[in-house]
Amino acid sequence: MKATLLVRILLLILISLQLGMLLSVNAHEQKPQISAPLAEKSRIQFNIFPNPTHGDVSLSFNLQKAGTVKITVFDMIGRSVSEQKEDYSAGSHRIDFSLSGQNAGIYFVQVDSPDGKNSKKLIVK
Length: 125
What we know:
Elements lengths: L1 H17 L4 E3 L6 E3 L11 E4 L6 E8 L3 E8 L5 E9 L2 E8 L6 E9 L2 E9 L1
Antiparallel strand pairs: 1-2, 3-4, 4-7, 5-6, 5-8, 8-9
């Protein structure tokens, strides 16, 4: 029962983030403020394949600006299960990594780059 409630709460959080509204608190005034929609912020576009996967995954992206790219994989509870950080030049890139040591389930891959941040769902069978 508790696990079902936790999954529902996580799904509601993800849905609210997808709707593009983040609630932030101004540290000086302590009044809640709504920030700009996520759609207006920079978002890097990337592809993840195969999805679903049995463990081996490829991630491709194109950078407009050179810089550090951080790729983090989170489980449904929000724990980081894999993270890599590397400097890349502008242009197209492909990264291969493995989640074969992870349990089957739903994961979220987050890419944070000079071009912005974005995340996608990944299913591990």
